[in-house]
Amino acid sequence: MRKIKNPWLHQEGYDCFGCSPDNPIGLHMEFYEDGDQIISYWRPQEHLQSWVGVMHGGILATLADETAGWVITRKLQTTGLTTHLDLRYHHPVRVTDDLTIRACIREQKRSMVFIDVQIENADGTVCVEGTATYYACSREQAQEMGFTHCELEDEQLLPM
Questions:
Q1: What secondary structure, in 3-state letters, does the chain show?
Q2: Global pTM?
Q3: Which residue among 23, 44, 48, 131 has the highest number of C-beta atoms inside a 10 angstrom radius?
C-alpha cells in the first residue's frame, strides 16, 4: 500500500472540502492505493454528528463520494464528475469510530465509470456501501482544470 500524492496541493484556488489539508472546515482526507482499491482512513469529529454521538449521513456520503473521485484521479489519471451516488446505510457510525473507506472500479462504459464504495468501522463492520457513477473527463478537459497526473509517494506502507 502506498500513499497517493495530492496533485492539487499547489493549484491556485484549491480548497476542496473533502481533501484539502488547508480547508479549515474540511475533512482533510488522505488516500492510499492498495492493488485495485483506493483507501482512506478517517477519524470522525463530534461537530459532524446528527443524532448525539452518531455521524451525519451527509458527511458519510461525502466520504464515499470523495474516495470514489480519487479512484478516477489515480486509476484513470484524469478528473471526473459525480453523476449518481447510491448508498445504503446498514449500521450507525459513531463519532468515536475510526473509519476505513474503500473504493474500486466495478465497470467502465466509455466515459461512465461505476465505482463500488464501502465504509467500515474499526471492527471491520461495513456500515455504508454503494455505487458512485462518475463521468471521467477527457485528458484535455482534465488539463483545462489544471490536472496533469497523480503519483504515489516512494515509501511503501504495510497493509492494515
A1: CEEECCCCCCCCCCCCCCCCCCCCCCCCCCCEEECCEEEEEECCCHHHECCCCEECHHHHHHHHHHHHHHHHHHHCCCCEEEEEEEEEECCCCECCCCEEEEEEEEEEECCEEEEEEEEECCCCCEEEEEEEEEEECCHHHHHHCCCCCCCEEEEECCCC
A2: 0.95
A3: 44
